[in-house]
Design a protein that fits this description.
Elements lengths: L1 E3 L2 H13 L4 E6 L5 H12 L4 E6 L19 H11 L3 E3 L3 H4 L25 H16 L3 E5 L3 H13 L5 E5 L19 H6 L1 H15 L5 H14 L3 E9 L14 E9 L2 E8 L1
Parallel strand pairs: 1-4, 2-3, 2-5, 3-4, 5-6
Antiparallel strand pairs: 7-8, 8-9
Bound molecules: pantoate.
Length: 280
């Protein structure tokens, strides 16, 4: 497995693989890898990738000044060992100065899907994500890019960026990976105390209960989002949002119809903000 630090070397690696006739996939991450990230490599292979590059870059411009950029967990040696064992072909782990050698005055901005849900409390976050992912695409030159459904809004925003800016890249969205007790895997779970972690199970539990209600015929989404908010609060969480939206265009969806619908949520347990979602 090759460890690559510069954009120039990254582009060369990717072009060399393509000259060999290989299909290149990128799995963008911020490191501190867990099984959720590793499942994205499986999804890349299942989508037809012959060469998989995982990027590890904690992107400063997607964190607001009051957020956890400095304390975001990092463990490059452990990540590299996991990726080697998993059979990744390359890791692209640039320094901040490689990605942003000068102050950023040019950004990629998505103006619709990136406005609601998480953007209500993180208004600049998705501009940082679209900008860095566009840069990572230009560095890794992939045929396929794989993102996780856990960051559902991010995945929709990035699909829209690929569509609107004509990146010649096939987007694959891989399912959420959960712990045995239902908690969605996340690098930020590390911040939770054992007690907070137990209380945070209210997220997946209430989403599962909502799904059963829909399967039993409930169509009124306001009832379900109110139920989920109540469950989270009863568990001591602080709700950021619980919303029912169209699973693709993220438009509010008050009544369950024929089209796939998603309930997405964010909530704090202690100082840790967690997100989760379910699609019916
Ligand atoms: O989902 C993440 O880990 C990040 O937002 C991403 C897509 C790697 C961009 O920094």
């Amino acid at each position: 497995m090759q460890i690559i630090r510069t954009i120039k070397d990254m582009q060369k690696w990717s072009m060399d693989r393509k000259k060999e006739g290989k299909t290149v996939a990128v799995v963008p991450t911020m490191g501190f890898l867990h099984e959720g990230h590793l499942s994205l490599i499986d999804a890349a292979r299942a989508a037809g990738a012959d060469a998989v590059v995982v990027t590890i870059f904690v992107n400063p411009i997607q964190f607001a000044p009051n957020e956890d950029f400095d304390s975001y967990p990092r463990d490059f040696e452990h990540d590299a060992a996991l990726l080697r064992e998993k059979g990744a072909d390359a890791v692209f782990a640039p320094a901040v100065t490689e990605m942003y050698p000068a102050p950023v005055t040019c950004m990629v901005v998505e103006n619709k899907l990136s406005k609601g849900l998480c953007a209500k409390t993180r208004p600049t976050h998705f501009n940082g994500v679209t900008t860095v992912v566009a840069k990572l695409f230009n560095a890794t030159l992939p045929d396929i890019a794989v993102f996780g459904q856990k960051d559902a809004q991010q995945a929709r925003v990035l699909k829209r960026m690929v569509r609107d800016l004509n990146f010649p890249i096939r987007m694959v969205i891989a399912p959420i990976v959960r712990e045995a007790d239902g908690l969605a895997k996340s690098s930020r779970n590390k911040y939770l105390s054992p007690e907070e972690r137990g209380r945070a199970l209210a997220l997946s539990r209430s989403l599962r209960a909502a799904k059963s209600m829909v399967e039993a015929g409930e169509k009124d989404m306001a009832k379900l989002t109110a139920f989920i908010s109540k469950e989270i609060e009863a568990a001591g969480g602080k709700v950021d949002y619980v919303e029912a939206v169209d699973a693709e265009d993220l438009e509010p969806c008050p009544v369950k119809g024929e089209k796939p619908l998603m309930i997405a949520l964010a909530a704090w347990f202690g100082t840790t903000r967690l997100i989760d979602n379910i699609v019916f």
